[in-house]
Amino acid sequence: MHRSVFYLLWMGSVAGICQVSLPQAQSALNVPAAADEPAVASAEISAQLAEAEAAIVKSDWKTAEAKLAAWLAAHPSDARALFDAGYVADAENRLEDAAGFYRRAVEVNPKSFEAHVELGLLLARQGRPEDARLELAAATALDAGAAGAEAKARAWRALAQIDGKDDPGAASTDLIEALKLSPETNADTVLAGSLAERAGQLDAADAAYRRLLAKDANSAQANAGLAHILIVRKKYPEAETLLRTALDKTPDELVLNVQLAAVLDAEDKAEALPLLRKLHVSHPDNATITRMLAVVLAEAGDADASDKLCVMLLAANPEDAELLIAHGQNLLRQPNFPEAFKAFDKATQLDESNADGWSGLALAASKTNQPMFTLHALTMRSRYLPELPSTYYLWATAYDALHDYARAITYYHHFLDASSGKMPNQELQAKQRLMVLGGKR
């Protein structure tokens, strides 16, 4: 398990894709009746809707809900009332009800800009980006009417966040459309940096984050974004300085603390372990921190403590190949070779392209006297990584165990040529076997 894997997982979890907020309280009152929307039939009925919307302004959701329910019972196709009912349900966290009302509003009036926007934002918060994108894209094609350019820009920005996950080019275009309608915000600059990074444009991302930091040196997102660029470029001392300076002002900022732990670990500094332990105590349910702590504990030689964390994580994610490999590596160190074999065998079935899994399986198979498995694992590993002295030795001993002495002699020689004193115990054994097999060194 590599520290970079967990760092990137962490960054993915804090990237903020589709982190959208509830609509502004006044927005429910900014939906004008469309030209094809039925006019209000009477002053009494108009007053009833006005009372509901007045209750919305006061955040008196129960009153608004009751009045809207009564109104909609008699007027089920009133797009404005349906939107208001959706807004109230949204504010009360009745998300399915809210989505239903917004959808009905869109069906009655497909040109309702705000209904499309709020339905899209709600779907995004529910983790349904594809559905959210359809609604937001529809909104950007409509006239925002009284909602104005700011509301239209808000739709484009939300669309940029969704597109940014899989299509940074499209997201950049979305963001440009938003900037045509309203001035650039700090959040826009952060998003631009993030999109550039996802597109592999590290220089552009670096420039965006630095531009924001020049205006706001305390921006946690800009500091985190720039730190990530520096970490990707392996500029660890510069990243450490940046993060320590930022943490002097915001010592409890979680992302910056996790990044500092990653940097300290990359620099092989002992401070990484106590920092991660502290973070784990304060955030025991944060899987990324737990994973990072497991890695650093293993690197520090505490396989037992590391494995307890891996087992805990595997209970929730039993099909996670990276966790299974970490678990297997800890079992090799404990040592518990049969269980290590099981862990690596499952990991390689889940992810055939993970060379670490095949390396571990080859060693575990050798330790449990399964030379055919050893050879298979080594063959698979060789598709992804070059040979090492240790793998040459495993090839040799596996062929030796299978009485394929010609190949065993060849690989013992490869091992001795590559090892050159790095593995003295195995070198002695290899020389002894060569003497027995008649392949003198």
Summarize the structure in words:
With 441 residues, the chain is mainly alpha-helical. It has a domain at 18-163: Serine Threonine Protein Phosphatase 5, Tetratricopeptide repeat. The chain is 73% helix and 0% strand. It contains 24 helices and no strands. Helix 1 packs antiparallel against helix 14 (254-266), helix 12 (220-232) runs antiparallel to helix 13 and helix 12 (220-232) runs parallel beside helix 14. Residues 1-44 have low confidence and may be disordered.
User: Percentage of helical residues?
Assistant: over 70%
State the distance separating the first and last CA atoms. 37 Å
Predict the CATH topology of one domain.
Serine Threonine Protein Phosphatase 5, Tetratricopeptide repeat
CATH architecture of one domain: Alpha Horseshoe
- Report the mean per-residue pLDDT as an integer: 88
Which regions have little confidence, pLDDT < 50, spanning 5+ residues?
1-44
Discrete helix count: 24
Beta-sheet strand percentage?
under 5%
N-to-C SSE series?
HHHHHHHHHHHHHHHHHHHHHHHH
Largest sheet: none
- Structural class estimated from helices and strands: mainly alpha
Broad CATH class of one domain: Mainly Alpha
The counted number of beta strands is 0
- Overall, the morphology is elongated
From the structure above, extract its key features.
single chain, 441 residues, mainly alpha, Serine Threonine Protein Phosphatase 5, Tetratricopeptide repeat, 24 helices, disordered N terminus
